[in-house]
Amino acid sequence: MQLWKRGLCPSNPPCLALAQYGNSTPQDHEHTMTANTIHVVLKLKDGLCQLVEVTDLGELHWVFGMEIQCDRIGHTIHISQCAYTDTILYRFNLTDLKPLSKPRDIQVLLTSEQSLKGAAEFAVMHNVPYCEAVSILTWAALVMCPDIAFTVATVTCFPANPGLAHWEAVKHIFHYLAGLWDL
């Protein structure tokens, strides 16, 4: 059956697709429906229920690790990144960081010359989760904090042999995130 026969119209670019691969159809996917009015959401849900099995999980409270609070009376939506920020700071044992107002130290220029050179530096950086931290910061830049994107892009240039200066730059970004709580 086609969606528009159920009162649903396609969008450009399309944001909804149903796919069947061989004899199996994807079953366990989470989707979020949003619209200007609850009437539109209910119409969409009813149309989809006639095509596929739908489980209503209620109002959206969390997405991408961020808390969503919807005030229907005040017509506002509050997005809080506190929980996600706390989670990543805890993951890297950086919960007691002093907040900073900028995502990078403009006095520091990162180069490959700052990469590890001696056995002592290798020993210090051996257990540092540099690539994991950079990966998480990349996600944070994408979904919640685009103002760190340039700085994160800079630290991604040194994944093979990051030095102490590169790790300090990553920690500087975490310091900045510690000072950002709500959007």
Summarize this structure briefly:
With 183 residues, the chain is mostly helical. Helix content is 36%, strand content 7%. The model is unreliable at 16-28 (pLDDT under 50).
Account of the protein in words:
The protein is mostly helical. It folds into 2 domains: 3-58, no CATH class; 82-178, no CATH class. Helices cover 36% and strands 7% of the residues. The chain has 6 helices and 3 strands, in the order αβββααααα. The protein has helices at 38-49, 82-91, 119-125, 130-143, 149-155, 164-178; strands at residues 62-63, 66-71, 76-80. It has a 3-stranded antiparallel sheet. A hairpin with a 2-residue loop joins β1 (62-63) and β2 (66-71). α4 (130-143) packs antiparallel against α5. The two termini are 42 Å apart. Residues 16-28 have low confidence and may be disordered.
- What's the number of helices? 6
Largest sheet: 3 strands, antiparallel
| Beta-strand residue fraction | 5-15%
Report the span from N to C terminus. 42 Å
In quaternary terms, these chains amount to: single chain
| Fraction of helical residues | 25-40%
Report Rg.
Answer: 22 Å
DSSP summary, beta strand count: 3
Order of helices and strands: HEEEHHHHH
- Give the helix/strand class: mainly alpha
Q: Strand order of the main beta sheet, please?
A: 1-2-3
**Average of pLDDT:** 79
Unreliable residue runs? 16-28
The structural domain count equals 2
Shape: elongated
Write the layout of secondary structure elements.
Blueprint: H1 38-49, E1 62-63, E2 66-71, E3 76-80, H2 82-91, H3 119-125, H4 130-143, H5 149-155, H6 164-178
Antiparallel strand pairs: 1-2, 2-3
Helix pairs in contact: 4-5, 4-6
